[in-house]
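hey so i finally got around to running both of the ones u sent me last week. sorry it took forever, my laptop kept dying halfway thru and i had to restart like 3 times lol. anyway pasting them below in the order u listed, first the sequence line then the structure token line for each. didnt double check formatting much so if smth looks off just lmk and ill redo it

first one:
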Amino acid sequence: MGILLAVSLLTSWNPLATAQLTIVLTHAAEGKNVLLPVRNLPEGLVGYAWYKGRHVNSNHQIASYVIERQENTPGPAHSGREIIQPNGSLLIQKVTLEDTGYYTLQAIKKTFHNEEVTGRLHVYRVTFRIFYM
């Protein structure tokens, strides 16, 4: 029975090599800090660049990060609240409703065959209702 189970597990195993670079869809309350997490980073990276919007556009670059030096460099779309983490994720501090939208990560490889992925952030307003009894 143990051998049958082992064979069954091996035939249904899916290697991680097919995993795609992804940004996890994120929701956040206005005023909170939010992390746009990245999954399945490729091997051989030298850095990252984050952009506001669905495309890589130097005018919309939030920041870039050099892995070897662990250095963040702000871009034209940097508001002073964004930090790229060593794992490629983007931290946005004190999010506003205007931060809602698409964000694109460019994973920069040594070979310069870069990978790009786009994710979405939704910021919602926190409202309070007072009930009188």
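and the second one:
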Amino acid sequence: MKIYMPKFEKRGGIIPAAVQDGITKEILMIAYVDRVAYLLTLATGKAHFFSTSRKKIWMKGEESGNVMEVIDVKIDCDGDAVVYIVVQKGEGVACHTGARTCFYRSALRRDLGIPAPKAGEAEALQTVNAEVNEKFMRLARLGPPQNGGYVTWDLSQLEHRLRKRAKTSSKESYTCQLLAKGVRHCAKKVGEEGMEVMAAASHETSDRLIAESADLLYHLLVLLIASGLSLSMVETELLKRQGKSGIKEKASRKKK
């Protein structure tokens, strides 16, 4: 098929490649690609890069097993940089330090709650005094996100955690118990939670409505996972409806 080719010649044949987690939206690493690595990535669906130190093509995870499955490749406006959108495999580790992302440190020296067990002297940074805007001062006073979470959070990150949990067989995991009982049971739970949301909205407090809504969204994500679907598919469907009359769209929808 026809594809766009970045302008490798603008940077001497090698351009920067950012890597973003397609589920959590977290930036994972920065590397470099040449024409061959770019084409290999598109041909194999796995992230390939060009090592500027070893002067050779390499595939992420070829030794560690932490392969990056590429689900999309984006090219910037100048045509001389790309972004790989990926799903991490293996242990979900992007960094040689053992961290899930290479960006495990804040410039403000704030604890991000991201362990980097293999970091050593080579990764150490110098500290200096600098004038800092008050908004950064407020951010610096925050503690680490709970359980190594994210400063910003959305449902995709919960989905990512549930998918990781689904790969285990823990008898203490409610998510695993739900998935083990199959799609029909998960669907039934969504219906039950929907009724509880309705009851909370009609007769209970705002706090109760928020709590029941959280339960509903959780069970809906589990149902999608059990059905082999993803939140991104739902988001795509919503984007398709953007700008359309909801009344007309619903009237034109055909039952399958």
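quick thing i noticed on the 2nd:
The first strand starts at residue 15 and ends at 21.
anyway thats it, ttyl
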